[in-house]
Amino acid sequence: MPRELVLICRGCGRKVWDDIGYLWVDTARVADVGQAQRAWEAEYRDGLMDMLDFLKYPEKVRWQAHHLACDPASEDSHYRLEARRLRTRADLLGWTAHLMGKNWLDCTDWSELLQESRQVGKQITPARPGAALTPF
Prior knowledge:
Layout: E1 5-8, E2 15-16, E3 21-26, H1 27-43, H2 51-55, E4 64-67, E5 78-82, H3 89-99, H4 110-116, E6 124-126
Antiparallel strand pairs: 1-2, 1-6, 3-4, 3-5
């Protein structure tokens, strides 16, 4: 099956091929953000807040693509999707369906990653420059 999508390493900026890299998120940070989100929501349960309070909402954990050699984090805290399993739009859609069953997905920037996958030069990019991904 031809490759429709390519991961771009956040470390070196080069393409990540099947056997040397992955897309990952730090699960320890995801747990921390989830706890911080729940605390923020409890504090502002009544809906009374100003703009500064709104800006205190915890930032989502970023999914990152890396070559194994470029990855700065410990593998112990990774939820990884190997590059070989993320070659096509159908793969991306399948992983989206799978991840929607995880109670921590909202603590990550997965939805932003999906949006960015339509643009060349982003973390997940069309394999052919200029090729647009069709909406799901």
